[in-house]
Amino acid sequence: MSPACQVCQGPALVFCTQDAAYLCNTCDISCHSNVLSQRHTRTRICELCHCKPSEVFCKNDSAFLCGECNVAAHNNPLAARHTIVPAADAMGSAAAASVPD
After folding, report:
1. Residue 51 burial (CB < 10 Å; 0-12/13-18/19+)?
2. pLDDT digits (tens, 9 = 90+) for 77-99
3. 33 vs 58 pLDDT, higher one
4. What contacts 47, CB < 8 A, 6 or more positions away?
5. E strands within 26-73?
6. What is the DSSP letter of 51?
7. I want to staple 74 with a disulfide (CB 3.0 to 4.6 A). Which of 14, 29, 40, 79 is the partner?
8. Interacting residues of 51 by C-beta distance below 8 A, sequence separation 6+
């Protein structure tokens, strides 16, 4: 189960590093609508454990994963060949941090 949004208590989809806050898409957009907060680094929540901020993005699986789940998911010779990039790079701009519910 994913953590609750720290603003509205709905299911969180992103984690804001600077605010140390889990947020749903709607609250993420609302909280990061000004010029200064748009610079905050946000990342998706891990798509396997649904409880930690993601650290990487697997391009082959199209999945945001925390460090532990990345190791577990790619602990075989075939999956070890997947293309893994930092989650922040996969998120792109601050606007891309907003994901559909």
Report:
1. middle
2. 999 999 999 998 888 633 444 44
3. 58
4. 54, 63, 64, 65
5. 42-44, 56-58, 63-65
6. S
7. 79
8. 1, 2, 3, 45
Tell me the C-alpha distance between 95 and 66, whole Å.
21
In angstroms, rounded to a whole number, what is the distance separating the alpha carbons of residues 33 and 48? 29
**Alpha-carbon separation of residue 71 from 65, 74, 96 (angstroms):** 9, 5, 26
For 3, 37, 44, the CA distances from 31, given in Å and listed in that order, are 17, 8, 16
User: What angle (nearest 5°) sits at the alpha carbon of residue 94, between those of residues 93 and 99?
Assistant: 100
**∠ Cα 30 34 35 (to 5°):** 145
11 strand-pairing partners:
4
Question: How many other β-carbons are positioned within 10 Å of the β-carbon of residue 8?
Answer: 13
Question: What are the beta bridge partners of residue 84?
Answer: 58
Give the pTM: 0.78
